Amino acid sequence: MIEVQNVSKSYGPVHAVKDVSFSVQKGEILGFLGPNGAGKTTTMRILACFMPATSGTAKVAGYDVFDQAMDVKKRIGYLPENPPLYMEQTVRDYLRFVAGIKGISANLVQQKIDRALELTSTTEVSQRIIGKLSKGFRQRIGLAQALIHEPEILILDEPTVGLDPAQIIEVRELIKNLAGDHTIILSTHILPEVEQTCDRVVIINKGQVVAEDTTAGLTHKLQGVSSVRIEAVGDPEAIKVVLGSIQGVAKVTHTAGAYMVESMAEKDVRGELARAMVKNDFTLLSLQSVGMNLEEIFLQLVKTENGDGRIEA
Amino acid sequence: MRNFVTIFRRELNAYFVSPMAYVVMVFFFALASVFFYLFLASFLQNQQMIQMQAQQSGRFQPVNVNLMLIRGLLMNLSVISLFMIPMITMRSFSEDRRNGTMELLLTSPLTNWQIILGKYFAALTLYAAMIGTTLVYMVILFVYGDPELLPIISGYLGLFLFGAALVAIGIFVSSLTENQLVAALVTFVVMLLLWLVGALGTFNSTNWTQQVLQYLSTIEHLDDFVKGVFDTRHLVYYVTLAFFGLFLTYQSVESTRWRG
Fold this sequence. Notes:
By secondary structure, chain A is an alpha/beta fold. Chain A has helices spanning 40-47, 69-75, 91-101, 109-119, 135-147, 165-178, 191-197, 215-222, 236-244, 270-279, 294-303, and strands at 2-11, 14-24, 29-33, 55-60, 63-64, 76-79, 153-157, 183-188, 200-205, 208-214, 225-233, 249-255, 258-264, 283-290.
């Protein structure tokens, strides 16, 4: 549905986005992850036909964002970083205006407005002036604006920013429910959001894609080593020797009553570790695998400078 | 067409939802009223004097309301407009740029022209409504006096065209900045320059520069309209200026995309 090929955007000598390529399949939710200023917004603006790329091509729903912008615009719903609202209007008037410019035929407008209000749970405020609403409601009305014309593709720039935890969960649920009918690309710098809502993730840093994979795959791939945390009673030195002697174990460290056993990712050594502990009469209290979560992966990736941390997908 | 109407209606609503439309119209009407009073008072005084002279000399000459009252009043309305037009046009694009709603407009299936013309005609409608408030004085003049209708129509047509040209320029300036105050100030200065440029020609010895400078002046072209002389040369001038302003606006909106 979305094909981005070698897209770059520069402002004079400054590269906001450099040679970015990725694709999104129909019905998928793609998470666009990166620290602030990484180029997420720029990329999304290019996809939404707000600004053209300096070089490279991007296709949305089969149409080029530059040459066939009008066709693209008809098929996308776009929520910019700051929801584009007219503060002096009531919610309903605003949505009526948006319905108009999105080309919804006059007899369907009421129905579509009601649907958008319902989906974003904003029906209760539909008669209120937007400027008097809380940030959370404004954000949701921004979302209502993006999906009012039931576009094939939704481009959401930080859709949950400024919401309280309960609202965040609501919006994430909403986004998940929308997937399938809609193809969604959303940006965020909050990791759990990607873990919880997205099928795939593109990590971007300093304008470059540093990783692209499924959420699970990325976690897996980055685990060059897997760690097992063991709690046991017994002589620390003896335990370390026993654990260290098991095949596949790379390193054993002892800290604060627990042992961290690192091993190659491909091999699950937990069974052998348990057996060795019992065989040598140590009291095994607990044994658990410690996976690296997306947060650690993310930090690892963005900390690595000049894209050395790039993972071939 | 439907997109244009949608934009036009929202823009017009925005004027009337905010106090701006009322402030502009009330200010304009108040200032226009002061001028009307002054012109009327001086007209009546003149009339008395002329009648006295007529009695002495025995020759009676009717006093022309159009020439001695309406013409001056309409010229002054154009001057008040110079102050009001920046207030009308300053928010046009600046507000959208600051609010981020420009992003909504530019990512919706709209052409730039639909956006620009929607905004332009909304501003022009408010301008026309503002000018229109003074028609009440024309009614008064018709009730108590005997003015000619045609010069009044041509005068108001002139004022409308004068506004049509300047509103286009105001919209263009508004599309250049996010700051409404800057937009208003720059618009005012540009309009003032276009108004005064004819005066530069007055003391110019060479004939053709004088003609060129006077041709460029927005006010020179209004004079004939107000006198009741309809000349297509003036029509062409105002329409050209309006098109030029809108063309520049188009370039500016288009370049916003590239500048980001």
